[in-house]
Amino acid sequence: MDMLVTDRDIKPFDPPFWLRPSIVQTALASFKFRKRGANPMVDAAEDRILYCEDNARLLGSFSKHPQNKALVIFLHGWEGSQDSTYVVACGRHMYNQGASVFRLNYRDHGGSHHLNEGIFYSTLFNEVFDAVKQAAELAEGAPVYIVGFSLGGNFSLRIARSLRDLTIKNLKHIFAISPVVDPWGAAPLVDANPLYKRYFLKKWTRSLREKHRLYPHLYPRIPELLKEKRVLGITEKLLPMYSDYDSMESYFNAYRVDPHDLKTCPVPISIITAADDGMIPEEDIEKLELNSNARRIIHDHGGHNGFFQSLRGPTWYDEYISGIIFG
Question: Of 255, 288, 314, which closes a domain?
C-alpha cells in the first residue's frame, strides 16, 4: 500500500476486494441509505443565516452538543449541501462523540438560491472564509476543526493558505478530503466519465434553472446555456455572460492551490486522497509543498470522498478525524 506519509501511527486503508473499485467507493459517498436511522445531530440542528463579506448571505446548520468537546465545521463539495450524505454521516459520527457541528452551504447550495442575487462561483472565497470565521465563534471556547470535501477541500486549503495573514479563533486542524487542487486539471475529468458528467450536469442545470426562475431579469440567457451537454461547455459560455472572467483558464487559475501555498500554514493540515480518484489527479496532491505540521495521505484505493472500510461505515477518514479530535 502506497501511503505518502511517514507517520507509523496512521492506520492503513485496506478495504475488502469488493469495495476496492473507485466507482464503488465514489458512489457510496452519496448513497442516501447512509443517512437512515437515528441522528441526534440532525435532531439538534438549527438553521443559521450568516451575513458575510460583500453583502452575501450564507445558510448553515448548527447542532450544539451538550458536552461541546469541539466544534467541527463542514464544507461540502460542488453541488452538494449541508445535507450531503458524506457530510451528514461524518457529522453524526463526530456529534455522537461529543462535538458540536456546523454545516455550511455555499451560495446557491442547499436551497439557498433566494438569499443572493449573484450566482455561485468557486472563486467566492471571502464570503466562505467569513462564514467559517463566524461559525467558529459558536464554539464558545472549544477547539475548532474544519473538514472539507472535494471543492470543500479546496476551500479548506485556501483557508489554510490565508492563515499566513488571517486568523480563525481556536482553529486546531484542517482536514481536506479528496480536495480539488488544480481545477484546470480536474474539470475535464468530470466530462470524461459519463457517470460523473451525468451527476454534475443534472445538479448544476437544476441549480441554474432555479436561479433563472428567481431572477429572470438578471439571467435571461440561462435557458440557452442549458442546451449544452458538457460541464465545461456550460462553464465556457456562462463565464463571459455573467462573471468577471473572460476565460475558463482565468477562472480556474483564480481558485487553484499552488504548490508553495501551504508551506507557511501555522495550523496542522491533513490531506487525504486516493490514487484511484477519478476526479483528482494524484500528481496535484504530490506537488504540494508541506511543512512539518502537515500530513499528505494518498491511499491506493478510496475513490472520490469514499474510503469505505465496510458498507455502512464508519469510513477511514471518520476514524482518522476522530482520533485527532478526541485523541
Answer: 255
